[in-house]
Design goal:
Strand content of chain B: under 5%
CATH class of the largest domain in chain A: Alpha Beta
Number of domains of chain B: 1
Shape of chain A: globular
Largest sheet of chain A: 6 strands, mixed
Number of strands of chain A: 21
Number of helices of chain B: 11
Strand content of chain A: 35-45%
Oligomer: heterodimer
Number of strands of chain B: 0
CATH topology of chain B: MetI-like fold
Order of helices and strands of chain A: EEEHEEEEHHHEHEHEEHEEEEEEEEHEE
Structural class of chain B: mainly alpha
Largest sheet of chain B: none
Largest interface: A-B, 23 and 17 residues
Chain lengths: ~350, ~220
């Protein structure tokens, strides 16, 4: 099953959206739709589930037409079999948790419905809340119920719109850790909208980078996000997938490519993790000069220099692609040239470790 | 006091609400969710009885339901009786007159239901009609109840339309309000006092019940 979407959606007060992508619905795969707030991510989801009608283009699932501008083709949202989880749960306030989860199973037999509801309540860990009303639940519990409700009728695709945005950080981390396992258990292809790098890296198999209503890049999350300027500093991040090889002096020992790095342990790190290294945290030195506080000293080769006023961006090969952001002054003092062999010093505290849960 | 008038008024009010409930629920849907030509005209027409003097409505109903009118003839062929000067005619008038009282709170409550809940229902495979029954109406129950109470109270005190369409036939179309009017005309002030007090008591009870329901929801 392949979902082919290529549509134009004008949006009052926002950029017009021209999205073109394919999703393979035949196998389990979590695709992340990543981009800044207001770039049109939510609208893409709403168009896919049929809550908004585009102005042009077409959306097709194999031979089935969901939308076609020319021949006025339209498949009602109720018949698309696409689950949609909203940012703030949107549970039916007049129904209990169990009734919410069973809402989409009206045509099932009573026995099958009860069994399916029970199965999902167990899976999302809210069995004991079955008889409660949504008003009596915490944000995290509500979102779990919303997730179970969307999964219950076994949709062909699950759409999640910033599923952790309304939660406080511990609750969000907790749910994020469980979400991938849950989707995998249900073998459910999913499209997740987020503007949070951690979410994108720990959940996604594939990432669509969106800005100003366009999809700019499509690839593995760590590839697309590497070199993308962050929101909270002048530098970008180098992102690499690493294997966790034990702990030393309270730090994680991580193997990324041919390099070994040490980083602070954020907790709950399994065997695999993504490392996000801020370019400001990477210093360079000529080999052979004294002791340093840095725990990570990597032999690197200079690939490229990009001067941006007082700052210079240095692209490096250190066993994996790495970027350093230096002052141009320091760069000139060190006489850094393309092809130089230097040592990169990375503070262990400058590496953010994001667990991967498989 | 005429007990027959009290019984008749109560019967009229109950029957009005019984007819209004399904009719109003069906009419509210296009008013809240419909997008069609002439919706503004329909909106206005359904609100007309709020501002129209009841005698004007009664006059047109008298013409429309008279024995020589098409509606009157169909009615006569079906039931053998006349629509005017009968309880059925009174009921038709009462329903039309009270439609806006029933619809207004219901439409407001339906419009206040979170749109996303309706969207969720659609993505879970439910048609719009089923979503209306399973989500919109249960969440708008307070509006439904307010409308029913208002329409009940209003039809209980029916005077103008009832007099025009129903005449003043004791036991058949003489409502409490008409009875009160007759008692005052006949200088039977003692009976008038009792009738007026009864209507006053009803009005107080209805408003009190509405306030109590509202208070129960917003503690």
């Amino acid at each position: 099953m392949r979902l082919h979407a290529d549509f134009l959606k004008r949006h009052p007060g926002g950029p017009s959206i021209r999205a073109r992508f394919d999703l393979d619905l035949g196998r389990f795969c979590v695709t992340v739709l990543f981009g800044p707030s207001g770039c049109g991510k939510t609208t893409v989801l709403r168009v896919l589930s049929g809550l908004e009608r585009p102005e042009g283009g077409a959306i097709r699932l194999d031979g089935e037409t969901w939308f076609q501008a020319e021949r006025n083709g339209w498949l009602d949202p109720a018949r698309r079999r696409v689950g949609h989880v909203f940012q703030d749960s949107a549970l039916f306030p007049h129904l209990t948790v169990a009734e919410n989860v069973g809402y989409g199973l009206r045509t099932w037999s009573a026995g099958a419905r009860a069994a399916r509801v029970q199965e999902l309540l167990e899976r999302v860990g809210v069995v004991e809340l079955a008889r409660r009303r949504p008003g009596a639940l915490s944000g995290g519990q509500k979102q779990r119920v919303a997730l179970a409700r969307a999964l219950a009728p076994k949709p062909r695709l699950l759409l999640l719109d910033e599923p952790f945005a309304a939660l406080d950080r511990p609750a969000a981390e907790q749910l994020r850790r469980e979400l991938r396992t849950l989707l995998q258990a249900e073998a459910m292809p999913a499209l997740v909208v987020t503007h949070h790098r951690g979410d994108a890296l720990s959940l996604g198999d594939r990432l669509l980078l969106m800005d100003q209503g366009r999809i700019l890049q499509d690839g593995r999350p760590e590839e697309v996000l590497t070199g993308l300027a962050g929101a909270d500093g002048p530098g970008a991040e180098s992102i690499v997938r690493a294997r966790c090889a034990g702990r030393v002096e309270g730090l994680l020992r991580l193997e990324a490519g041919s390099a070994v790095l040490f980083a602070a342990d954020p907790g709950a790190v399994g065997e695999q993790a993504h490392l996000c290294i801020r370019s400001e945290g990477v210093a360079l030195e000529r080999p052979g000069s004294g002791l340093l506080s840095h725990r990570n000293v990597l032999p690197v080769r200079v690939l490229d220099l990009l001067q941006e006023g007082a700052l210079t961006r240095v692209r490096l090969d250190g066993g994996f692609p790495l970027e350093a952001l230096l002052t141009t002054w320091a760069c000139n003092d060190l006489q850094v040239k393309v092809g130089d062999s230097l040592q990169a010093l990375v503070k262990a505290t400058a590496i953010r470790v994001i667990p991967i849960h498989d | 006091m005429e007990w027959s008038a009290a019984v008749l008024s109560l019967r009229l009010a109950l029957c009005s609400v019984a007819v209004l409930a399904p009719l109003g629920v069906a009419l509210a849907w296009p008013l809240v969710f419909g997008r069609f030509r002439g919706k503004a005209v329909l909106d206005t027409l359904l609100l007309m009885p709020l501002v129209l003097p009841p005698t004007v409505l009664g006059f047109y109903l008298l013409l429309a339901c008279g024995p020589r009118s098409p509606l009157g003839r169909v009615w006569a062929a079906l039931t053998g009786g006349t629509l005017v000067f009968s309880f059925s005619g009174l009921l038709v008038a009462s329903v039309l007159l009270n439609l806006p009282f029933f619809l207004q709170p219901l439409v407001a409550a339906l419009g206040g239901v979170d749109r996303r809940l309706l969207e969720v229902s659609a993505t879970l495979g439910e048609s719009r009609a089923r979503t209306y029954l399973r989500v919109s109406l249960p969440l708008a129950w307070r509006g439904l109840l307010s409308g029913a109470i208002l329409a009940f109270a209003h039809s209980l005190g029916e005077f103008g339309v009832a007099l025009m369409v129903g005449g003043d036939l004791p036991g058949r179309t003489r409502t409490l309000s008409i009875s009160l009017f007759d008692q005052v005309q006949a200088y039977d002030l003692e009976a008038a006092h009792r009738t007026a007090l009864l209507l006053l008591g009803f009005a107080f009870l209805v408003l009190f019940a509405t306030a109590w329901l509202r208070g129960k929801d917003h503690p």
